[in-house]
Amino acid sequence: MSVVSSLPRFVAPTASALLLLAAGLLHAEVGVVDDTAATVRLAQPAKRIVSLAPHLTETLFAAGAGEHVVGTVDYSDYPPAASRISRVGGYSQIDLERVAALRPDLIIAWESGNAAAHLDRLRSLGIPIYVSQPNQIADVASEIERLGVLAGSQPVARRAADDFRRRLAALQARYGSRPPVPTFYQIWKQPLLTVGRRQIISDVIRLCAGENVFARLESMAPTVTVEAVIAANPEVIVASGMGEARPEWLDDWRRWTSISAVARGNLFFVPPDLIQRHTPRLLDGAELLCQQLETARRRRPAK
């Protein structure tokens, strides 16, 4: 007599019911609210996802959904596995035909990076779109969790989000009450671009007890003048540039010796992948920036 046949009769139906329940959970409808306050609903967790920005690809991997990403854009290079995913163009120049050919059941888009017309065209094909725009550091953890819901990878996403929140809280506790440091963050040289109040990098500066000297500006990446920077007299100038190397143009500020940052040697570099991508690695960039602001505090003249 088999073990199964020796069980009481009422056990078999119960086991079958549990199997059916488990199967139902695997195919249950999922839904979240994206950063535009739109509700995104799927009949079941997504299995074929197209990501339309490098940082979104990275966050999908962090949320445990990397195996479901079938398409992404240029410069999606982290983690290394992301480099092997099919490309659908650049984040600002999407090849809509390539996207459609991948038959995605979910698209993850970037509100301030992807063209609205492209997203409207993809919506007309009936493809659900989650639109991302995290403007505060804490939003990254929430995004990890929401992507985990949509991809059916909640346990991994929840752990990643909890780790992010614990690390963020530790940085807040360590640096939040330090003396403020007026800071100019330079994205690019020509045009001279910085970050405004709503940009997530401004939140990183606040985390480190820095003061963005252009925080009054509403634009995400406003253009400013050299004269405006001189007038703001930042104690720190931080540049990112485009690659892993410190941009040569950061040293162009050395001619303006009236700026406190120049006079005290506070010209710093943070790799763009660590601070300009809205991903868990943002805290790596934040930790580096916080250390740089601490250096600036130590270089203040004795009173």
Number of domains: 2
Q: Could you give a short account of the major beta sheet?
A: 4 strands, parallel
User: Approximately how much helix is present in the residues?
Assistant: 25-40%
Amino-to-carboxy terminus distance: 90 Å
Q: Which strand-content bin applies to the residues?
A: 5-15%
Overall morphology: elongated
Would you tell me which CATH topology of the largest domain applies?
A: Rossmann fold
Q: Compute the number of strand runs.
A: 12
So, CATH architecture of the largest domain?
3-Layer(aba) Sandwich
The parts where pLDDT drops under 50 for at least 5 residues are: 1-13, 17-25
Order of helices and strands: HEEEHEEEHEHEHHEHEHEHEHH
Structural class: alpha/beta
User: CATH homologous superfamily of the largest domain - what is it?
Assistant: Nitrogenase molybdenum iron protein domain
Number of contiguous helices = 11
Residue-averaged pLDDT, rounded? 91
Topology:
Layout: H1 11-26, E1 30-33, E2 39-42, E3 49-51, H2 54-62, E4 69-71, E5 89-90, E6 93-94, H3 96-101, E7 106-110, H4 116-124, E8 129-132, H5 137-151, H6 154-175, E9 181-186, H7 200-207, E10 210-212, H8 226-232, E11 236-239, H9 260-263, E12 267-269, H10 272-275, H11 282-298
Parallel strand pairs: 3-4, 3-7, 7-8, 9-10, 9-11, 11-12
Antiparallel strand pairs: 1-2, 5-6
Helix pairs in contact: 5-6, 6-11
